[in-house]
Amino acid sequence: MRIGIGLPNQVRDVHAPVIPAWARRAEEAGFATLGTTGRVAYPGVMDTVALAAAAGATTTIGLLSQVLLATTWPGALLAKEAASIDGVSGGRLTLGIGVGIREDDFVVPGHGPRDRGARMDRDLATYRSMWAGEPVPGSPNPAVPAGRRQVPLLFGAFAPAAYRRMAESSDGYIAGSVPPALASAAFVAARAAWRAAGRPGQPRLVAHNYFALGDPGRGRANIADYYAATGEYQDIVVGNLHTDAESLRDAVEQFEALGADELILGPGTDDLDEITRLADIVL
Questions:
Q1: Packed helices 273-282 and 245-257: angle between N→C axes, nearest 10 degrees
Q2: Please, one GO biological process term (predicted)?
Q3: Nearest Cα to Cα of residue 224 among 182, 255, 269
Q4: pLDDT tens digit string along 51-81?
Q5: Which of 85, 100, 182, 275 sits at a 20 to 30 Å CA gap from 36?
Q6: CB-based burial, 22-56: b 16+ in 10 Å, e otherwise
Q7: Contact yes or no for 243/219 (Cβ under 8 A)
Q8: What is the Cα–Cα distance from 138 to 63, expressed in whole angstroms?
Q9: Domain 2-282 in CATH: superfamily?
């Protein structure tokens, strides 16, 4: 199982210049992937910007959005953004997407929370078309340079429609920031949807948890603040925050036993020393 680390772009009032420095240090430490968690209506760094900054600051580490709120974007614009980040990084991006749940993140006129599932289905076709080099709707020009690839897609969420989209249109599934026991049920559902869709092999399965080692209290407060509008889910995520070596090693063992292909550990603070603290425990 690969071990990745999140960028601190979701930390409230993050010191934005830390993003490229964090990416470089994480790559040097040996993490497999850099992940992002992002919203619009929150004082952090947009996930696409954080991924682009990380792409420019590194050379080998993977890049993953987990998950980007795809339906808050016009489909053609997100397709262009993702292809651009993937191109700049040399083909290191995996685009993890979801439909979003908080109404205040939907700020683009005509792209509100209503009918976002149906819009996602339409946008998926737009992504594939534009990544294949077909013209932008209404233009003779394609949006991406010739020879670009189809950006790998993962889906996150717990709704039946999300599992269907994952199985029909992507490379795998991202579980929420939950304990292994809850992620297990999601992985079972993802595998079942994959088989029902007639897909060969197995979906790529990614788990996500949070950690705070240097200042657990501040990390816990930051995570609670970020998930404040999610009700019971906030309690699950905060209760699952890892603050010591024993908890982290146990999580790694349990997710590996579940068959997860990758575990991304997201930071509760933007303290650069958290990278070394985490690496000393899990790498």
A1: 60
A2: alkanesulfonate catabolic process
A3: 269
A4: 999 999 999 999 999 999 999 999 999 999 9
A5: 182
A6: bbbbbbeeebbbbbbbbbbebebbbbbbbbbbbbe
A7: yes
A8: 31
A9: Luciferase-like domain (3.20.20.30)
What is the rounded distance in angstroms from the CA atom of residue 213 to the CA atom of residue 218? 10
Amino acid at 207: A
Average pLDDT, the chain: 95
Q: What are the residue ranges spanned by the domains of the chain?
A: 2-282
**For residue 115, what are the contacts with CB-CB under 8 A and spacing of at least 6?**
none
Backbone angles phi, psi at 17, to 5 degrees: -60, -10
* Tokens, residue 25: 């240090």
Amino acid letter for position 16:
A
Classify the phi-psi angles of 240: left when phi > 0, otherwise alpha if psi is within -120 to 50, otherwise beta: alpha
137-145 — which CB contacts under 8 Å span 24+ positions? 137/76, 143/76, 143/79, 143/80, 143/83, 144/79, 144/80, 144/83, 144/84, 144/87, 145/87
Number of residues assigned to the chain: 283
Please, how many CA atoms are within 13 Å of residue 129, restricted to the half-sphere of its CB? 14
Beta-carbon-side half-sphere exposure of residue 259 (alpha carbons within 13 Å): 13
155: which DSSP letter?
E
pLDDT in tens, 197-209: 999 999 999 999 9
With H, G, I as helix, E, B as strand and everything else as coil, classify residue 37.
coil
Please state, in angstroms and rounded to a whole number, the distance separating the CA atoms of residues 213 and 274. Answer: 7
